[in-house]
Amino acid sequence: RSEEAGRKRMTGMQLVQQGRMEEAAQALGEEAAATGSPYVFYNLALTCSQLGWQKRARAALLEAVRRSPTFSDAWINAGVVMQQEGKVLLAIRCYKTAARTSSGDKKAMALYNMAAILIRMDRLREARDTLASALQHNPSMAVVYDGLGTVKLKGGDHKGAQGLFKRAIAIQPNLAESYFNLASIERKRGNPQRALSLLQESAKGTPSGTSSPRIFWAQLHNNLGASLHALGRFEEAVEQFDQAISLVPDMVMSYVNKGEALRVMNRWEAAIESLKVAVDVDPRHGVVLSNLLLYKQNVCNWDGWDETFASLKEILRANSKTVSDGTEESVPIISPYQAVTFPFSIEETCMSISVYARNILDKAEKISPLLSFAPPPPVGSLARVDNVGGRLRVAYLSSDFGDHTTGVNVAGIFSHHNRQQVHCFAYATSVSDGSKTRRKVEEDVETFRDVNELSDAQLAFTVNADGIHILVDLNGHTLGARTTVLALRPSPITIFDQGFAGTSGGVATHFNADKVSLPPELARFHTESVMYMPFFANPLNNHKLTYRSVLSWEEEGKLSEGSRRRMRNERLGLGSDSFLLACFNSAYKLSPSLFLAWSRMLRGLKDARLWLLRWPEVEGNIRRHAEAVGIEQNKLLFTDLLPLEEHLQVKSALTDLYLDSFAFHGHGTTSQVLWAGIPVLSLPFERIGQRIGSALVLHSASCPLLARNEQDYISIAQAAAGGRGRRILLDIRERLARERETSPLFDLARYVNDYEALLRMIWDVEESQLANSFHSIRQQL
After folding, report:
1. Is 198:159 a contact under the CB 8 Å cutoff?
2. How far apart are CA 206 and CA 184, in angstroms?
3. By C-alpha distance, which of 470, 420, 422, 411 is closest to 444?
4. Segment 504-542, tens digit of pLDDT
5. Helical segments of 85-175, H only
6. Do 625 and 595 meet the contact criterion of CB atoms below 8 Å apart?
7. How high is the pLDDT of residue 647?
8. Which of 98, 197, 543, 737 could form a disulfide with 75 if both were Cys (CB 3.0 to 4.6 A apart)?
9. What single-letter DSSP state applies at residue 524?
């Protein structure tokens, strides 16, 4: 019998060597049943594992260790199988038993595998001690040094981690994991080219410390794609993400990253399809759902919007419960941008931003012990008492000092600051784009600093060393933001201003607003002290210089109705009695509820047309939605963007009434439209982004067109198309044109004067508190 069993065993192993794995598994299974040998069960398990038969592999391994409780190799592989099945606590038990029943290299490997799980569970101290124990049994095991490096990396010690990864490579030059981890450090440092080179080295190596090589290679391709994306090589990035997906079809983040690369290439529908597959893989993945909604929003593809948005809100509610009871770490699943542009309630928006901000505050808390800040020089009453003259030092922090909406809007303010009372700084956190806007900021501000290369800690130290009293952040939670610097509090006062229409979530001390954009009764949804400007909180660029091409009222009067009709016919193919409604906001600011309101509006107006801009992949979707609700296709007009030098003049000559959006109002666009003399219809909601357009309208001659609700919005537009309504619109146009040069909306000098007065006021409050603290300390001494 033993000879027959031997022939079967040899046959099974020979089949393995020949790659005939299914036949080998059958032969080994027969031998295991016949002999009961734990070693045959072990070989059977390895064969089944290679075939992907995880359940049979697990059963064979458990039978092997049952028959031989000190079989350490079987215990190690049983741990690997348990780990792959997500049974991490059982995997740890297997590795502990393997370590207890072995010595030398096998004991070190069992301890390493156990530490790898502890690292993923963020039990970093236990992981470090376990790895140290592994080194005692094998001081030259490269993967153990890699594991120790991972512990330091997760603890924020990048330099220490880098040294350990390099030591691991010195021991084992082809260790793929260490190159992979070095690449992660370079990516975090903002060096995508160096990260790409290291990942390419990793691809040449061999993974030695992973329980699943297939998952490792998938992660490698995913990170290669991320580095290529950062370098602007989007097509190559998509190829890498596809390779990751082919290896591990349920790796959700590869679909997300692929979607982002497609989005940047304006292949919106392809990006949507990528995320639809990801939803099939994990229907409750918050990042997938939020990005899918974002892409749909940007091309006005509202199919299934309500159902997807309801699922996202349910996940957000579950996430908020996790935060409140403190049982596990909260992970932000939507960006602040999504929080303020999706149709959340103001409470939901505030909660989502606060979750995001918590990570920023945690990061600052780790950095702050390394820094020591001095108080700024005295100003005002303290300066006079000490006979030390001093101006208020105000610094503006932004990555958008260039041809960006924020940069264009604020570029004119620096020349209006009173240098006798305010020393103004500008900290640019991005490389110069060489634009006129950037040059104007550099020339007009008293002190300009290019701080693009500084880390958060270095930048905070610079702010404090400059003696800044008030640091004004113009980014908010947007691309390029350095909000960690604000969270470090290098100046006594930090202000969220301009760039972001929402709370900082606890990052800043103050928020700049006006009482229309943020009524006092809604200020409770902001974590900051709200400072109220007396008129309008957002400066508008110098329209008097930038948009001189608009027609004066006298020139508009010379443009006869016949000329206007001919112009409409030539440009848009419209008849003589048509009434032209328009909205030039970006596509992401449109929404299903807005389009339904427009549809009701158009159905009640026989000769009305709606003029929209042609954004990538948008027109087809809007026309499809229009057909679904019974709107005739000829009522919708789409044009490409007009040349900058003539766009306001043409829009003014053609448009009867401008319609502001619901989900997010126009800001720069609405101000340009009002400057051009076009009446604007707006409806305020709860959030700042849904009120800023209404604030512009309220402070202009267009204020009679401020709606109270959606029905009022529709009724005002329909009434405006009638004979009396057209006369009222003509009167508004005349007032807008005549008040253009004197309106406070476009008076930058007045804005800066009001802003300086408000800054001095909040600094006086801060300084008095500092003075009280100083006197209290002196009395105690």
Report:
1. no
2. 18
3. 411
4. 999 999 999 999 999 999 999 999 999 999 888 877 665
5. 88-100, 104-120, 124-137, 142-154, 158-171
6. yes
7. 83
8. 98
9. G
